[in-house]
Design goal:
The relative contact order is 0.09. The longest helix is centred in the first third of the chain and has 63 residues. The strands form 2 sheets. The protein has a 3-stranded antiparallel sheet, covered by helices on one side. The protein has a two-stranded antiparallel ribbon with strand order 1-2. The protein is about 60% helix and about 10% strand. It folds into 2 domains: about 60 residues; about 130 residues, Arc Repressor Mutant, subunit A (Orthogonal Bundle), CATH 1.10.10.2520.
Length: about 200
């Protein structure tokens, strides 16, 4: 009877050791796995938050992705939104300033509407495809007397800048391309007279 009890005790002891060993192994894996699960859940939440933010931030960009800001050289606080490509930004800044100087020189005494018409002539010529830049339009031989006599260097007034802003956004006349004082240009189609200038296309 004692012999049997010893054998039974031995078997039970062996099983107990195996059970304890298994429990120990499980506890080790739990200790190792728990931080990994926490990290995995944290990374998942972080990824979801980043994706949500990216989606929110991307929505406004779709509205203004084709826009650039043109800042006048002499008035950095003033901006104009236009559809010109971004890689032409520097040229655009210089051209807009040059345009303002030309309008001031050619129509400084013609009132706001007279300035707008002169500005339209220049912009319409530029968009005809014959010139690469607005400066090319203004500097074309025999076109603007202010280039020859140096009046192109006149500082534009606040009103002139306002006119340029308005005409870049929405032009008052998209047909006129030429103007002069006293009479219409020869070989052009007369359109109308405003104050001292005769406008044609």
């Amino acid at each position: 009877m004692k012999k049997v009890n010893k054998e039974v005790l031995g078997i039970l002891a062996g099983k107990s050791i195996k059970i304890l060993s298994s429990i120990k192994t499980c506890l080790v894996w739990i200790v190792i796995a728990t931080p990994l699960w926490i990290i995995a859940i944290w990374l998942l939440c972080l990824t979801m938050c980043v994706n949500d933010n990216a989606h929110i931030d991307s929505e406004p960009e779709a509205v203004k992705e084709d826009k650039i800001i043109v800042v006048y050289v002499d008035t950095p606080e003033r901006i104009v939104y236009t559809d010109m490509p971004v890689d032409e930004l520097e040229t655009a800044i210089l051209n807009v300033e040059y345009l303002a100087r030309c309008v001031e020189a050619e129509a400084g005494n013609q009132g706001k509407l007279g300035k707008a018409y002169v500005c339209d002539c220049i912009l319409n010529r530029f968009e005809s495809g014959k010139y690469k830049t607005i400066e090319d339009v203004i500097n074309a031989p025999g076109q603007f007397s202010c280039v020859k006599d140096g009046q192109i260097n006149s500082k534009p007034t606040e009103e002139t800048y306002e006119v340029i802003e308005e005409e870049l956004k929405e032009r008052k006349n998209s047909e006129i391309k030429y103007f002069r004082t006293g009479s219409y240009h020869s070989n052009t189609t007369p359109c109308f007279q405003y104050k001292d200038h005769f406008f044609s296309k």
